[in-house]
Amino acid sequence: MIRYLVRRAALAVVMLFGLICMTFVIANVAPSDPAALAAGPDAGRAQIEAARREYGLDRPLHEQFLRYVGDLARGDFGRSVATGRPVGQDLARYFFATLELCLVAMTLGILLGIPLGVLSAVYRDRWVDHGTRILAVSGIALPPFWFGLLLQLGIASSLGWLPTSGRLSVFTEPAAPVTGLLLVDSLLRGNGALFGEAMSYLILPAIVLSLPCLASILRVNRSEMVEALRADHITAARAHGVARWRIVTVHALKNAMLPTLAIIGLRWGWMMSSTVLVETVFDWPGIGLYAVSSAISGDFKPVMGVTLIVGLNFMIANLVVDLLYGALDPRIREA
Amino acid sequence: MTLLSIDDYRLAFDGFEGTAHVLDGITLDVARGETLGIVGETGCGKSVLARSLLRLNPAPPARVVSGTIRFEGENILAMPDAALRRLRGRRIAMVFQDPAAFLNPLLNIGTQMADVLHGQDSAGDAPRRSAREAHARSATLLASVGLPEPERLLDARPHQLSGGMRQRVLIAMALAGEPTLLVADEPTTALDVTVQAQILALIAALVAQRGLTLMLISHDLGVIAASCARVAAMYAGTVVEDAPTATLLATPRHPYTQGLLAALPDLDNPAHRPRGIPGSIPSLRNPPPGCRFHPRCAIATARCGVEKPALRALAPAHTVACHHA
């Protein structure tokens, strides 16, 4: 198990280096001049050149790259040329808003997707299965911005049950950040009212974000369960008199969980990198919104920072999935 | 005394391309303590018949067309779920063909055996035994099938065991519920030849020690001759001949059984060339009318293509389904 872990982690380091290279290259081939942006719209040639020197953009590419890697190693993501704020600080704030949203959305997706997938497989071609199929197809097909607007209109605006947008009411003082996740921080401080408020703001965007993820977890889990229930060892377990619930929830589900885990890992990566539509509709102050607004103004340091964070998140998700694979299937661990 | 009585059992599988009439009027009695072999080529319905005894054929697509399977007088085909759970493993147990596929790759042996024991506890309304009791009982069972270091084996996963060990584990699981009838479906087919002999010897020893009734399914007459006192030969979903093993080997009366024996190599007489049966097994979706074997039969007459031969007794324990035997 240790060897498996070390090998996976070593692979992750190589991938991280590749990711840093890619981010750097993409930022440098993009048709935009950060020096001109930094110097402002009315700047003359001399001022632009001064800005270029100030940001080190006049140096050869390999030097710029080494400096970029060195800064990253110290946790320095550079400064936004548009706002002058350090990108690291912005990222820390926006990232945790997105992380909180995604964590809740993924929890919803897993807690609903897996049991519904199991039920659909056990009662295949019965009404449960048809019902979840409709849910899954809608989950994939409904555009998130449209579905989000619909929920805002119905539940938030017409019925007035939940707030329309934002992360907290403008009049609410957020708890001093410990983890950066409002739900966790409010609980840590024993502030139930704040928890409730944060949840009321979070739940609609989380539902919208979770729907496609729920749909794919459900469908993958269902088809893997159908396959797993057909396995010879399931026939043997039935013949030996193993209890039916035990066969479904342990003997078959454990086998079906390997591919399901893979899709959960992938979905997690995609989810973190595609929150922008949901964040825009619900005015959620996350990295998606931050990246898009920076990209529009041609401000590349934040975009590079977000790309790196999102890529890193993808890698961590993959690593966790690999480790869970090994924990679940000893043959992988020993291979 | 009859333990198992199968009467005119017909089973069909409904598929997109039509209905396959896989078992066509099986009639077979097994007495308590008997060792019965069922022989026939691949696709003749042996395994489907074996699985019918525990209602393991998935329905749909499987559909019982007619007949009864009585075990100790109760019709298995009409059993309610609770009775079926008490049947599985505790009255009829099964050993399967490929032990690698029939053990769960992700669970260790101890968990799989404990699940069997706990499942049988709950089916029999017995108090659920503790984890320690299940562990001890599993170790005893593994030791009883000749596995060394059973305690360590309980922590192992199937892929860490050899084929022969896995098959012993499956046999131990089958014995967990102290069954009356042991159904062994090609138990040696996936194993090396030397291991085959060991497994057959183990099954024979267990049958003798525990007074089990054995139903051994194989395509290999040699395997059956070594373990069973009586043989039923199946062809395309029907029993064609049923006789004591020695009688069937010495004087087979059905043309198909004769063909099976002629296809065996004779080690004492190297000049004897094995002869195959011409033709191939018929489609079960569209089986030949009358006797299902008649298109491949050397002595078939017009009657064989029209009228299905019933099993009739040639001698007290020797029955044949052939118009001309």
Automatic annotation (TrEMBL), chain A:
GO molecular function (one): dipeptide transmembrane transporter activity
Membrane topology: Multi-pass membrane protein
Pfam family, one: BPD_transp_1_N
Ranges in a coiled coil: none
Membrane-crossing residue ranges in chain numbering: 94-122, 134-155, 198-220, 302-325
Domain ABC transmembrane type-1: 95-325
One Gene Ontology cellular component: plasma membrane
InterPro entries: BPD_transp_1_N, MetI-like, MetI-like_sf
Main localization category: membrane
Subcellular location: Cell membrane
Keywords for this protein: Cell membrane, Membrane, Transmembrane, Transmembrane helix, Transport
Family listed: Belongs to the binding-protein-dependent transport system permease family.
Protein name: ABC transporter permease
Organism: Plastoroseomonas arctica
From TrEMBL, chain B:
One function term, GO molecular function aspect: ATP hydrolysis activity
Cellular component terms per the entry's GO annotation: plasma membrane
Membrane topology summary: Peripheral membrane protein
Keywords: ATP-binding, Cell membrane, Membrane, Nucleotide-binding, Transport
A GO BP annotation: transmembrane transport
CDD domains: ABC_NikE_OppD_transporters (cd03257)
Residues that span the membrane, as ranges: none
Organism domain of life: Bacteria
Places the protein is found: Cell inner membrane
Pfam families: ABC_tran (PF00005), oligo_HPY (PF08352)
Domain ABC transporter: 4-261
Family: Belongs to the ABC transporter superfamily.
NCBIfam families: oligo_HPY
UniProt-recorded name of the protein: ABC transporter ATP-binding protein
Organism: Plastoroseomonas arctica
Lineage start: Bacteria, Pseudomonadati, Pseudomonadota, Alphaproteobacteria, Acetobacterales
